[in-house]
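Sample intake sheet
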Amino acid sequence: MRHPAFRLLLSLPLAGLLAGCGATVQQAASAPRPPAAPTRAHCSTETTTVGSGRVALAAVVRNGARAYRRPAGRSFARFGRLNQNGFPTVFRVLAVVRARDCSARWYRVQLPLRPNGATGYIRATAVRVGRVPTRILVDISERRLTFFRGGRRVLTTTVAVGAAATPTPTGRYYVNQRLVPDDTSGPFGPGAIGISAFSEVLTGWAQGGPIAIHGTNEPWSIGHAASNGCIRVQNPVLERLFRSTPAGTPVLIRR
C-alpha cells in the first residue's frame, strides 16, 4: 500500500514580542529609539489537548518509536516504521507536551494495541505530525456510518455491524491502515479500512482480531447485525471511503 498523503505541520512561528524602550518624550524627540529586542517565548510544560471536531492530528513514525506510560518513564511498547502488514505506523495524537521554548517534546497518542483505547507517550523526534480533516461516526443501533470532512457531513450510509455473539466494540479509535485484499471479490470486498480497535471476544484470531470498515460479498447483510465485529458497507461506498480516509482519521463507534 502507498502511504496516504499528509500535509506536514511546520513548526508554528513564534511571534517576537517587542520590548518597550522605556524612553521619555524628550528622549524620543532628541534621538531615535534603539531597535526593540525580541523577548523569548515561554510555554507551559503541561500536557495540552489538541484536535477538534474539524481537524485531528496524526503522527507517522519516522524510523522507530517507543511508547511510554509517562514522559521519560519506562517504555512498554516498540513500533517500527512499518506495521506487521507493511503499512506505515500511525498514531492519533491526543495531546502535546512542550518544552519551555514551545517546541514539542512529547505527544500523548492513541495506540493500535489492546486494551481498546490504549494510550501512551512518544517522543516528538520519533514522528512526523500532520493534519487530518476527516472523521467517521458509526452508530450501531441505527446501523449507520457518517463521514465528515472539515466538520461537515459528506456521506451517510447503512452498514452491517457485529452479531450478538461477536459485537462491534464501542469507543473512540482511529484509522491505522488501509489494505487491499488479494481477492477483491471476497468477503472484504475491494478494500478494508483498518481501525485501532480489536474484537473483545475473538482474541485468538490472527493479529488479535482487529476491526475494520470493509466491503462485502454479502450485500444482503447490510443493515443487519451479521458480522464478526467489523463494519460492512456496500462496495461502491467502500471505494469512496477508501479514497477519502487517510490514516489518523478519528473513528467514534457508539450504540
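Comment: The domain at 134-254 is CATH 2.40.440.10 (L,D-transpeptidase catalytic domain-like). The mean pLDDT is 86.
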